[in-house]
Design brief:
Elements lengths: L2 H6 L12 H9 L5 E5 L5 H8 L3 E6 L2 H14 L4 E4 L12 E7 L5 H14 E12 L30 E14 L3 E13 L1
Parallel strand pairs: 1-2, 1-4, 2-3, 4-5
Antiparallel strand pairs: 5-7, 6-7
């Protein structure tokens, strides 16, 4: 059983049921949709929020227990999601299929991070939008969420894969995140919204 399968295999939503604040802000500022892929989306809070905005959302996550909770949350909110158990190590990224892609606190080994970001670049349609909020390297000292392994945290240079895109928002900053028990308190994040 992978650690996420185990972590999500409980009634409580580890990161709460409300969408990440940056995703909510991005939905007001930019056009997200209509066909959205949510990568490493866990229990589905961001995907359900976007489905409530009228988007068709597909979730990829490694943990079936997370996807089951995402479906339960979608039913509770009266929306529909498509879900797929996806190990990103084995992902076959489609070519220019999605209008928007989101990835909220998707933390991976350096090799898988590079591969995933390149996959996102490949799978987004021209003119499409990628939105992400992730923990920066400095987060290791905050202790308010995220990996305890420094190499799993991001730096601005990781986003050079999108250097030729239009950067609508790209910032490293301190924010307060209260997202269930998983993220709680002052944090250091990188936020990126880019148009292909």
């Amino acid at each position: 059983m992978n650690k996420w399968q185990q972590r999500f295999n409980q009634p409580e939503y580890v990161f709460g049921k409300e969408a990440n604040e940056f995703i909510q802000e991005a939905a007001k500022r930019f056009t997200i949709g209509p066909n959205v892929l949510a990568v490493a989306e866990g229990e589905g809070r961001n995907a359900v929020f976007l489905a409530e905005q009228g988007c068709n959302v597909k979730i990829w996550d490694f943990a079936q227990s997370g996807l089951d909770k995402a479906q339960a949350l979608a039913e509770e909110k009266g929306v529909q999601l498509k879900t797929k158990v996806q190990d990103l190590q084995e992902a076959e990224w489609p070519s220019e299929e999605y209008d928007s892609i989101i990835c909220v606190f998707g933390h991976f080994s350096p090799e898988l991070r590079k591969r995933t970001l390149e996959g996102i670049r490949h799978a987004l349609k021209p003119g499409g939008l990628f939105v992400t909020e992730v923990y920066a390297k400095e987060q290791i000292d905050y202790g308010t969420g995220g990996p305890k392994e420094l190499s799993y945290l991001y730096e601005l240079a990781d986003f050079e894969v999108f250097s030729d895109w239009k950067h609508l928002h790209f910032e490293k900053k301190e924010v307060v995140r209260e997202e269930g028990k998983g993220h709680s308190g002052l944090s250091c994040v990188i936020q990126f919204a880019g148009m292909k």
